Amino acid sequence: MSREFLGRPPFFVRQSLVATIDMPELPEVETVVRQLRPQLVGRRLRGIRPYTPGVIRCQAFPKAHLVGATMLDVRRRGKFIRCDLMTGPHRRRRTCDRLTLLVHLGMTGQLTVLDAPSARGRHDHLDLLLNGRDLVRFRDARRFGGWWLLPSQVADSRAPLADLGPEPLEVSRKDFRRLLAGHRQQIKALLLNQRRLAGMGNIYCDESLFAAAIHPQMQSCDIAAPAANGLWRHIRRILRAAVRRRGSTIATFCRPDGGPGEYQDRFKVYGMAGRPCVRCGTTLRRLLVAGRGTTLCPTCQGRP
DNA sequence: AAGATTACCTGAAGGC
DNA sequence: TGCCTTCAGGTAATCT
Fold first, then answer.
1. Does the structure show a pLDDT above 70 at A258?
2. Where are the domains of chain A?
3. Quick one: which of A18, A19, A50, A212 could link to A32 by a disulfide (CB 3.0–4.6 Å)?
4. Is position A120 annotated as part of the catalytic site?
5. At how many degrees (to 10) do helices A26-40 and A225-244 cross?
6. Does A63 qualify as catalytic in the annotation?
């Protein structure tokens, strides 16, 4: 079976949209959100059907409150997809009327809007039922993804959003410099830590550090202000470019519509170990930093 | 307090 | 061909 076929829903189901991206970081999640938003906002839910134990991550998940709820907005916070809902009229009097549904795609999470129920595959773990026959199907081969449901009033102050750091595209240059100066930690570990900055993952870390010519093992507090400013600028540039190109697709393809991202064609270091640096020709090296495979140019990104 | 290690999970890829 | 091992990584927990 070809690798292209693996990611596809059964051919007889007409899908109005497929949002499928592996290794979702900020640009990929943003892409999914932008594609889902017009399909979901304003729609009423019939309910939610989890099929796999563990896919729902919060202890109390008032499933029934979703019946008749209306989707008000779909947004992104870090690598989370955040759906804000208003509960149906029969629920409104006895309980909170605003709910927040959170989805984390983990490593391999995919959301597909189907216009009719179809046979579930091995890795389909949850359906969100919409009005009519439509549904949003959650597929996640490695099962690192998960769903949460919280009253909207407390969504930002409780797990899993509570401890998230600022958005890399919103943090000011000054605050970013302060963040780096305030921690004695390898810069790559800091960038990957969602409590420090929410949304960066392995790919965009490596690309940003290469662009800024900073060694991933530099202690963040040892990075001089001009270099920190440069890193801030490159992170913004790269994330924005990746969002414009609808993220990066590494392994799975899913046409039509949600389509693969295109930023993978722009990688300068990620997955390129052994090949020459585009800047100086030195062979790119791979090492382990913060427990993650890391690619860098030993010449451009001088030793810490 | 930083950082190293492990666990979770499965498909892909490489070795023999 | 097929079995085995290793690797990939977002996050959390645990140890040093």
1. no
2. 3-155, 173-296
3. A19
4. no
5. 40
6. no
CATH topology for A173-296 is: Helicase, Ruva Protein; domain 3 (1.10.8)
A276 contacts: CB under 8 Å, gap ≥ 6: A282, A283, A284
State pTM to two decimals: 0.90
Straight-line distance from CA A29 to C1' C8, in Å?
19
pLDDT of residue A254: 43
> Residue A151: beta bridge partners?
A99
Alpha carbons A187 and A57: distance in angstroms, whole number? 30
Which of A292, A48, A244, A246 lies closest to A147, judged by CA?
A: A48
Query: HSE (CB half, 13 Å, CA atoms) of A2?
Result: 5
- The pair phi, psi for residue A301, each rounded to 5°, is -105, 80
**Vertex A267, ends A261 and A271: CA angle to 5°?**
100
Using CB atoms within 10 A of its CB, is residue A299 exposed (0-12), middle (13-18) or buried (19+)?
middle
Note the CA–C1' distance, A241 to B16, in angstroms: 44
Query: Could you tell me the distance in Å between the CA of residue A89 and the C1' of nucleotide B7?
Result: 43
Nucleotides of C under 7 A from a protein CB: 7-12
Given a contact cutoff of 8 angstroms between Cβ atoms, the answer to whether A103 and A54 are in contact is no
Q: Hunting for tokens 């060694």 — which residue is that?
A: A215
User: Per CATH, the architecture of A3-155 is what?
Assistant: Alpha-Beta Barrel (3.20)
Residue A25 annotated to the active site? yes
